[in-house]
Design goal:
The protein is of the alpha+beta class. The chain has one domain: Nuclear Transport Factor 2, Chain: A (Roll), CATH 3.10.450. 25% of the residues lie in helices and 39% in strands. The protein has helices at residues 12-29, 33-39, 57-67, and strands at 40-48, 52-55, 72-76, 82-86, 90-101, 114-125, 128-137. Strands 1, 2, 3, 4, 5, 6 and 7 form a seven-stranded mixed beta sheet that branches. A hairpin with a 2-residue loop joins strand 6 and strand 7 (128-137). The longest helix is centred in the N-terminal third of the chain and has 18 residues, at 12-29. The protein starts with 11 loop residues before the first helix and ends in a 9-residue tail after the last strand.
Length: 146
């Protein structure tokens, strides 16, 4: 029997995961390491095209503290977010985001800043969501393309 088509850009699942994305990156942008730590799994796997594989919550939080806090601001590219269900697990989130200097988040613009792609796996337990896997790729090497 054919499955009904999934609307990856609307609906209850999309709204739930989009809210998690917003909460996660609000914490990221404001160096709220307590919230970030609570949102990611202890066995997080983070694959990054420029830095490779990082395993575990603690190395992830340490990397955010060292490399992101006060330095980098993330903005989701409007209209790029898609969410797909993962039966008995949760959801996969894909999209594009822009990174720019934290001192100038107003300059975070997909047309002038480096856009990167991401795929994230969210595990749902009851009403709770936990980020378990991240693939971040296709980064532009500098904040602003000339």
């Amino acid at each position: 029997m054919a499955q009904p088509a999934v609307d990856a850009r609307a609906g209850a699942l999309f709204d739930a995961v989009a809210a998690q994305d917003a909460r996660l990156f609000d914490a990221y942008n404001h160096c709220d390491l307590k919230t970030l730590s609570a949102m990611v799994s202890e066995d997080l796997e983070f694959y990054h095209d420029q830095t490779g594989l990082a395993r575990g919550r603690d190395p992830f939080i340490a990397a955010i503290r060292t490399n992101i806090c006060g330095k980098v601001h993330r903005l989701l590219v409007p209209g790029s977010l898609e969410v797909y269900p993962l039966k008995t697990y949760g959801a996969v989130e894909v999209g594009e985001h822009v990174f720019c200097p934290a001192q100038h988040p107003d300059k975070c613009d997909p047309k002038t800043s480096g856009v990167a792609k991401f795929t994230m796996l969210w595990q749902q337990t009851g009403d709770s969501w936990t980020l378990t896997r991240v693939i971040s790729y296709a980064h532009v090497s500098d904040f602003a393309r000339k």
